[in-house]
Write a structure and sequence with these properties.
The protein folds into 2 domains: 127 residues, 60s Ribosomal Protein L30, Chain: A; 159 residues, PurM-like C-terminal domain (Phosphoribosyl-aminoimidazole Synthetase, Chain A, domain 2), CATH 3.90.650.10. By secondary structure, it is of the alpha+beta class. The chain is 32% helix and 24% strand. A 7-stranded mixed sheet has the order 9-11-8-12-10-13-14. It has a 5-stranded mixed sheet with strand order 1-2-7-5-6. The protein is globular and about 55 Å long. The longest helix has 18 residues. The protein starts with 14 loop residues before the first helix and ends in a 13-residue tail after the last strand. Pfam families: AIRS, AIRS_C. InterPro entries: HypE, PurM-like_C_dom, PurM-like_C_sf, PurM-like_N, PurM-like_N_sf. Belongs to the HypE family. This is Hydrogenase expression/formation protein HypE.
Length: 344
């Protein structure tokens, strides 16, 4: 890692975050479960608990510092539940239980905290899980920003085949479950007090049900799942390409972007491909099963806009390309910098 100080861009989920993980964190903490860098670690029971026999658990953790705490379509509470559930789902796991750590700033309103906790409880109930343990810390006024939440989640792996960003193959198709960029733009517009003619709502939602339907329909034809949160679709596809040493071509004309989100991005000079999502998934599926995958996703209320946005190629490994509307091709890199801080 070249930098000698941490900057805001190291938390944006893009190139700087990748450099921090690969240049400092992973080399010091390296182990087989961590090194895959998927959304959740897969823990085979035979390895960790030999007496339990076959099967595996998924385990994940995340922290939420979104500002403002309340935004159109949700708040930090349901964002924390949904985000953790989604990381487990991307491993092909059924969520079992969550933990929640609250870091509260002195002076924060108990009414606000009650609203956040109520939303957390409602979100957990919708998925059929519970927050079973937690912790609370309070920091002095001015040393925090209202409410931060850390979560961890555990789930049971339901699939019987290897899956993850290290299992993508040339010829595979890349699917997205719906329109991109809504969450990041909704949070940013609220924070900056910018009003648009058409309101933009965060897409925060749990994706386990959609994943379950997809895996039931396509099975081992699903090679990888990932939710494009920080850094957006562009960064997530780059992580996938590096993970399997393949190239991914994205078709600009196929990208689903709501008109209001596209308009906001044009005004603000932002690219929807680098904006965070909190209720969408990317699925890499074998080419011979893509029709079944699309059919299954489109029949689910969270996947009605599902479409193919790209394909996997042999070379050059670790690269993502965008085939533009004009017929040209350009490199689609990870997010650089931090244009939208504190969005999750």
């Amino acid at each position: 890692m070249k930098e000698d100080r941490i900057t805001m861009s190291h938390g944006a989920g893009g190139k700087s975050s990748h450099d921090l993980i690969e240049g400092l964190i992973r080399p010091l903490l390296s182990n087989p479960a961590l090194d895959s860098l998927d959304d959740a670690a897969v823990l085979p029971l035979a390895t960790f608990l030999p007496s339990c026999g076959e099967g595996a658990l998924a385990f994940t953790t995340d922290s939420y510092t979104v500002s403002p705490v309340i935004f159109p379509g949700g708040n930090i509470g349901d964002l924390a539940i949904n985000g953790t559930v989604n990381d487990l789902a991307m491993a092909g796991a059924r969520p079992m239980a969550l933990s929640a750590g609250l870091i509260l700033e002195e002076g924060v309103s108990t009414a606000l905290l009650r609203e956040v906790l109520t939303t957390m409880a409602d979100a957990a109930r919708r998925v059929g899980i519970a927050v079973v343990t937690g912790d609370t810390k309070v920091v002095p006024r001015g040393k925090g920003d209202g409410i931060y939440i850390n979560t961890a989640g555990v789930g049971v792996i339901e699939r019987q085949w290897p899956m993850g960003q290290g299992h993508i193959k040339p010829g595979d198709k890349v699917l997205v479950s719906g329109s991109i960029g809504n969450h990041g733009i909704a949070v940013m517009l609220t924070r900056e007090g910018i009003e648009m003619q058409s309101p933009i709502i965060s897409d925060t939602r749990p994706l386990y049900s959609l994943v379950h339907v997809l895996l039931q329909a396509v099975g081992s034809g699903v090679h990888a799942l990932k939710d494009p949160t920080r850094g957006g679709v562009a960064t997530t596809l780059n992580e996938m390409a590096v993970g399997s040493n393949v190239a991914i071509k994205v078709f600009e004309e196929a990208l689903p972007v709501d008109a209001a989100v596209r308009g906001a991005c044009e005004i603000l000079g932002l690219d929807p491909l680098t904006i965070a999502n909190e209720g969408k998934l990317l699925a890499v599926v074998s080419s011979d099963r893509v029709g079944e995958a699309l059919s299954a996703m489109r029949q689910h209320p969270d996947g009605t806009q599902a479409c193919v946005i790209g394909e996997v190629q042999d070379n050059p490994g670790g690269m993502v390309f965008l085939e533009t509307l004009l017929g040209g091709t350009r490199v689609l890199d990870m997010l650089v910098g931090d244009p939208l801080p504190r969005i999750c």
